[in-house]
Specification:
It is a single chain. With about 160 residues, this protein is α+β, with helices and mostly antiparallel strands. The chain has one domain: Double Stranded RNA Binding Domain, CATH 3.30.160.150. Helices cover about 35% and strands about 30% of the residues. The protein contains four helices and four strands, in the order H-E-H-E-E-E-H-H. It has a four-stranded mixed beta sheet. Helix 2 packs parallel to helix 3.
């Protein structure tokens, strides 16, 4: 317990401040973004995750615009040439624009990847494979939304008034 207290004092002495600590620029970014996300299920899931993390735009200052590209590629084949594993990768390009107009204050690209199995056989189902593929796309979209929020939080001090 004493070592934990000493570690806290050491961090305080070096200027460490929690990212979302009281009064921090990252804590103040909640409710400041109008969201523009792609249509479709992955875009919807990304929007929901961004809303969860950034809050609804009750005092908007910026527009967060996101373009999402997903790619699914077979990565494992059986001897009968059936694909049984798929890799899903995503790239999200985003920009933060002031609602008052002007150039973007932040642009960036985030990536994520996952995989899912689509076994071939009498006990497997096409529906189960379809659901697994959609779930993989959702996981990728949500992971990229989390990365975008982290980049917004880390750079929030650059946009603070």
């Amino acid at each position: 317990m004493l070592s934990l207290a000493l570690a806290g004092l050491a961090l305080a002495g070096c200027g460490f401040r929690p990212l979302y600590g009281e009064g921090s620029p990252a804590a103040a970014m909640r409710g400041r973004f109008v969201l523009e996300t792609p249509d479709g299920q992955p875009g919807f899931e990304m929007r929901e995750r961004l809303l969860e993390r950034l809050g609804p735009a009750d005092q908007p200052v910026y527009r967060l615009s996101v373009r999402l590209d997903l790619d699914t590629e077979g990565s494992a084949l059986t001897q009968q040439d059936y694909t049984t594993r798929y890799d899903v990768s995503g790239v999200a390009r985003y920009e933060v624009l002031p609602l008052a107009g002007g150039a973007p204050v932040l642009t960036g690209t985030v990536t994520s990847a996952t995989a899912y199995s689509a076994p071939e056989g009498d006990s497997s189902s096409a529906f189960a494979s379809l659901v697994a593929g959609r779930d993989a796309e959702v996981r990728v979209a949500r992971a990229m939304a989390d990365q975008i929020v982290m980049e917004l939080a880390v750079t929030a001090g650059d946009r603070a008034p």
